[in-house]
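Researcher: Before we compare anything, I want clean individual predictions. No alignment, no superposition, just each chain on its own. First chain goes here; please echo the sequence and then give the structure tokens.
Model: Echoing the first chain and its structure:
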Amino acid sequence: MRIIAVLPWLIALVLAQAGPTYTVQRGDTLYSIAKRHDTTVEILMRLNSLSDATLSVGQVLQLPLRTVQHTVQRGDTLFSIARRYGATVQAIQQENNLEGTTLSPGQVLRIPQVGVAAPSNPPANPSASTPNLPPTNPSPAPPAGATANLVNPTPLPNPTPPAPEPAPPPQPSQPLDTDYDPTHPLILVVLKYLGLPYVFGANSDRTVDCSAFVQQVFAEVGIKLPRTSREQWAAFSTVQGAMRQGDLVFFSFGGRQIDHVGIYLGRGVFAHANSYGSRVVIESLDSPFYKRVYRGAKRVEALSAQQP
């Protein structure tokens, strides 16, 4: 019995080790590697048993297997399929160029995987349900140094464009983005929360909602924030121009009032407790869905005072 119980774990380990790898180059970060290989920081950390974001040149990282196929069964939803395979609704939509959440029995989907292939046709789960997620489209990786003004934020003036500069000479390697510092105190704290379950209204060390996640992360660096996303929106000054790591980014899923908040991490990505994925994740502000519901960014000056 002991051998039978251990066998699936050994098979999973062998399959993970047989997956593709990537050798870390100078200037690489977990974020840049994840975006380049269409995965997430959380998946890379879990697949490589990493406890922090520190990388070494020459380090070999396991990458997730690309995709498996799933044939939609009666009763399947994007949310139930995502939960079954350990993926996210947005990842499945992007992988299959889906503009909505409607599925048809017999439809074949490509499912992004986390290193171990799942059966191509697991049994349907009629009881699962999906949230009413607005349609999304695949999008390119965001540019370095995102600005606080994405698409239709309420109302924020556009930053003054910088004066044109002569084109630099060709460089042998891509330079580091200037808005990202892997040693930033909030980065180190956020990584501890990745994967923590989302529950609306929760505020504990086991479950959080969006504003509780933000409040707890800042509390760990000695900064007290209000409890709700609307209170946090009202408490701080509006960011104009380029955002910095640690700025708060706000959204309105309902279309009228602020009802969601996350933390900008640099390089166009932000961390938040995602109600659709039911956990703390890192995602791109350049996603068409988040562009539509984005309302602006606020700066916690107490955090800026801590930085050199």
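Researcher: Okay. Second chain, same rules.
Model: Second chain and its structure:
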Amino acid sequence: MPTGLFFHIDCLSHETPAGHPECVDRLNVILSALEADRFSALKRYDAPLAGRDKLELVHTSDYIDHVFDLDPDGGMAMLDPDTHMSPGSLTAALRAVGAACDAVDRVMAGEIENAFCAVRPPGHHAEPDQAMGFCLFNTVAIAALYARKNHFQHRVAIVDFDVHHGNGTQTVATKNKGLFYASSHQSPLYPGTGHVQDNGAGVIVNAPLAAGSGSKAFRHAYEERVFPALREFKPDFLFVSAGFDGHALDPLADLMLTEDDYHWVTRELKEIAREYCHGRLVSCLEGGYNLSVLGESAAAHVAALME
């Protein structure tokens, strides 16, 4: 079965202040890289708009109201010091959630084996009641609970290889038995969460890595900590928070990874998905802020999904 690519032009309408690392060109370089001939077999989909019912799987009504009320007619609104809304931001965020949930539906229908959602804004820092770290709604956490509710996938796993810990996703996993959340991330680094000893109602596996760790330590963390725990969990469905800001050239961190590391970890996760959940895997873009390497990093990820 093919790999699906989910995108909508509305995701380019989310604008941020001049000089902000989470900029429109992030998606442009990824989409350009995925136009190469080797990606011609991708099955491409326009992301639908998510309704409020999907947002409420994770977020409080008061928080959703707050975001909708702040939706600006012009200029910028600020949700937190790092997280801004332009006139197109709310629609972009709803497309991002819609992409992930539509990908779940199409994977479950057997139309595609797996999917990459090339969407923005990112999501993994968004708490149920708070925007954080460039994120409005927690796309992957919403899609995970959507898979449980609508497709009866009772054991849902999320693996997050963004260089920053996904505090919002972990919050959701701590409250929901049957969710698995694993994160590799640089520590100490924003947002200061993601400790080895964290636990909750769901399964929490954190693999903090020191600055400068590089490929060997990254792969060791997965082989010795993340993959064994994921196999023990035996997921029915696997989600990936795909952040490429661990790259050696990324300006926001110092984990010193390469495109080959993203290809490797994706290939291994795909094999675990095939082993335990019929290949069911949906990946969503999170971070990655060096435009010169972001496209090829995402391309390495998608290429592994297509193998």
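Researcher: What stands out in the second chain?
Model: The chain has a mean pLDDT of 98. Additionally, The first strand starts at residue 3 and ends at 7.
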